[in-house]
Write a structure and sequence with these properties.
Layout lengths: L2 H14 L5 H8 L3 H14 L19 H14 L5 H12 L5 H10 L27 E8 L9 E8 L5 E7 L4 H15 L4 E4 L10 H4 L6 H9 L2 E4 L7 H20 L5 H19 L17 H7 L2 E6 L5 E4 L2 E5 L12 E6 L5 E5 L2 E2 L2 E5 L6 H7 L2 H18 L12 H13 L1 H4 L12
Parallel strand pairs: 1-4, 4-5
Antiparallel strand pairs: 1-2, 2-3, 6-9, 7-8, 8-12, 9-10, 10-11
Protein name: ISNCY family transposase
InterPro entries: Homeodomain-like_sf (IPR009057), Integrase_cat-core (IPR001584), ISNCY_transpos (IPR047797), RNaseH-like_sf (IPR012337), RNaseH_sf (IPR036397)
Length: 450
Amino acid sequence: MSEKEIRRFKVIQDVCEHRLRRADAAEILSLSERQVQRLMNKLREHGASSLTHASRGKPSNRRYSDEYRKEILSTVHKHYSDFSPTFAREKLIENHNLVISLETLRQWMITDNLWIPHSQRKPRVYQPRYRRDCLGELIQIDGSHHDWFEGRSEKCCLLVFVDDATSRIMNLRFSETESAFDYMVATREYLNDHGKPMAFYSDRHAIFHSSNKQAVESKYPTQYGRMLKDLGIELICANSSQAKGRVERANLTLQDRLVKEMRLQNINTIEEANNWLPYFIDDFNQRFAKAANYPKDMHRIVRENTSDLDDIFSWQDTRKLSKSLTFQYDKVVYLIENTEENAKLVNEVVKILDYPDGSISVQYGHRNLNFKTFDKLAKVDQGQVVDNKRLGQVLRFAQQKQEEFEKNQTRERSKSSPKRTAQKRAIAQLRALNPVLAEPETFQESTSKK
C-alpha cells in the first residue's frame, strides 16, 4: 500500500470503530460521505486489501505484447548488443521499422543485461600522473580571473606558466582580458627568458582549441596554435582541469600569496605589477620549486631573429586582391602600390599581419607590399575628393555611412578582428615615450633655421 492508502485505511478504520464521524472523515480525505460509506463497507467485507488500487499488480492494457518484446530483444542481441539505448532505438526504427519508446527499451535492455545504468557503474579512478623528468619538457599554462588588486583596480586576469617537472613558475603576466594577443606577449617574454620548451599544456579555451568542425580538421586551428607551430612547440589541450592540476593549484596559492604581497608593496595597477612580478617569481620558486628527476634542461635556443619573431607573434589572416589591387580588412580598404611587379598580383592571395601594437603589414610570399589605406569609418576629405574627381561616388558613400551612423548611433570595427586591448596598452606606452611614435602623421618638420 502507498502512504496515501495507509492514511486512508487508518481514517476509515477509526470511523468503523466509532472513534471518528463520517463527516469528519470525509473532510480529512476530501471525499463525500457516501464514498466514505462505500470504503467502510469494503473494509468490513474484504479487509485492508480492498482499499488498494484494483489495477495494481496487473499488466497494463497498453503494454507491448510478449512476441513484440522478444522480437526487439533478439534484434538488439543480434545487431546492437553494444549500442546505447538511444542509439539502438534509432537503428531499430530506421533499419527494422520496430517502433518503441526510449525508456521502455532502456528498461528491457537493463533487465536483459544489455545495458548498465550509470547509477550502478563503478566510478572512474583518476590516478595521479607522475611529473615529467626534465625542466622545459612540459609547461602548463592557464589564465586566472580574480580581484587581484582587492578593489584598488578593476578585476583582471593573470597568465600563469608552470613547469610540470619542478612546479616552478616560469612566467607571470597581468592582462585586462584573456585574449590571444595577451598570451602572445606572455609567451614571447617566456621565450626571451628561458627559450623554447617542448610543449605547452592548456585547457580547451577558444584561444587554444577551436570548436569549429572545419577548423578542427587542422592540427593548429587557432592563431595561438599557428604561432606555436611556427616556433616548433607542441600544443596539448587537456580534457579536464584536473589533468593540469599543477597550474590549477598554483592559481590558488597565487590568489592567496600574490594578492597579499601586492598589498604590502602598495602595487595598484597592472603596469606596476608586471614590473614587480620577476622579483616575486624568484622568491616563490626558492620557497616552493622542486628538483627535477634529471638535471637536463629541455629548453631550446630561439634561433629566429627579432623581425621573424615579430611576424610570428602577430595576428595573421589572408585576403584576395581585386583587379584594382585592393582588399578590405577590419572595415578598412587597403590599396597596394601600383607598380609593374605588383600588377601581376591581381586575384592573388596576400597575408595580413596584425601586430600587437596595432600596425599592419601585408606580405606576398617573403616580400612586403607597400600600401595606402582608405578608412571607411573616417571622415570624408573633401579636398581629396575633388582631386580624385569622384565627387558623386564619394558623396553617395558618405550619405550611406551617415544613414548607417544614424541607425546604429555608434560605429564599430569588425567583430571578427582580434581584440584591441593589448594594442591600446602598447599604443599608450608609445604615446608616453613620444607622441610622434604613436601618431606619425602629426609630425611637422621644424621651419626654424639654426
